[in-house]
Amino acid sequence: MTDQRIPWDQYFMAQAVLLALRSTCTRLEVGATLVKDKRIIAGGYNGSVSGDVHCIDDGCYVVDNHCIRTIHAEMNALLQCAKLGISTDQAEVYVTHFPCLQCTKALLQAGIRKIYYLHDYRNDPYAVELINQVGATAQKVVLEPEYFQKLSFGSLNELTE
Ligand SMILES: [Zn+2]
Ligand SMILES: [Zn+2]
């Protein structure tokens, strides 16, 4: 019998989508999941520095058309590893939007060699070049609804009863 379970790429990308729902910046909701050896080691979403106000409460802090208050989801995931002392070498990242140049540089420098993304988003040509240059890969993931059919409030109720 073939494995009927949700494939890893669908599972980890869905985690990134869930994280994006926690974003506190309304300009773009992004989630990122760091994975190593099929284990989630960290997750992040774009939001303020802990202790600062949230964009959703006080509005974005926009300079040169960017919200400068938020830390990007990928950075937050990496920083969680820095804070907790978790190695990111050879880890993979699942992110809802193609990483910006700064995040791409940070991810590569932190040892991440596989970037899975859900949406193309202003894909930076130099970021793409860098990914190729260091022998990393960026691969688009399409979420397949068939794997999520079991998810419904009905079955969630069964789980919580
Ligand atoms: Zn903002
Ligand atoms: Zn970024």
CATH architectural arrangement: 3-Layer(aba) Sandwich
* Integer-rounded radius of gyration: 17 Å
**Distance from first to last alpha carbon:** 30 Å
Number of contiguous helices? 6
Query: Strand order, biggest sheet?
Result: 2-1-5-6-7
Provide the CATH superfamily: Cytidine Deaminase, domain 2
Give the count of structural domains.
1
Largest sheet: 5 strands, mixed
What is the H-and-E element order? Answer: HEEHEEHEHEHEH
Any descriptors?
161 residues; binds zinc ion; 6 helices; two-stranded antiparallel sheet; alpha/beta; single chain; 34% helix; globular
Question: What order do the helices and strands come in, and which of them pair?
Answer:
Blueprint: H1 8-20, E1 31-36, E2 39-45, H2 55-58, E3 62-63, E4 66-67, H3 73-84, E5 92-97, H4 101-109, E6 114-119, H5 125-133, E7 137-140, H6 153-160
Parallel strand pairs: 5-6, 6-7
Antiparallel strand pairs: 1-2, 1-5, 3-4
Helix pairs in contact: 4-5
The site of one zinc ion has 6 residues, from helix 4.
Can you describe what's shown?
The structure is a single chain. The strands form two sheets. A five-stranded mixed beta sheet has the order 2-1-5-6-7, with helices on both faces. Strands 3-4 form a two-stranded antiparallel ribbon. 34% of the residues lie in helices and 20% in strands. It has one domain (8-157): 3-Layer(aba) Sandwich (Cytidine Deaminase, domain 2), CATH 3.40.140.10. With 161 residues, the chain is an alpha/beta fold. The longest helix has 13 residues, at 8-20. The protein starts with 7 loop residues before the first helix and ends with a helix. The structure holds zinc ion (2 copies).
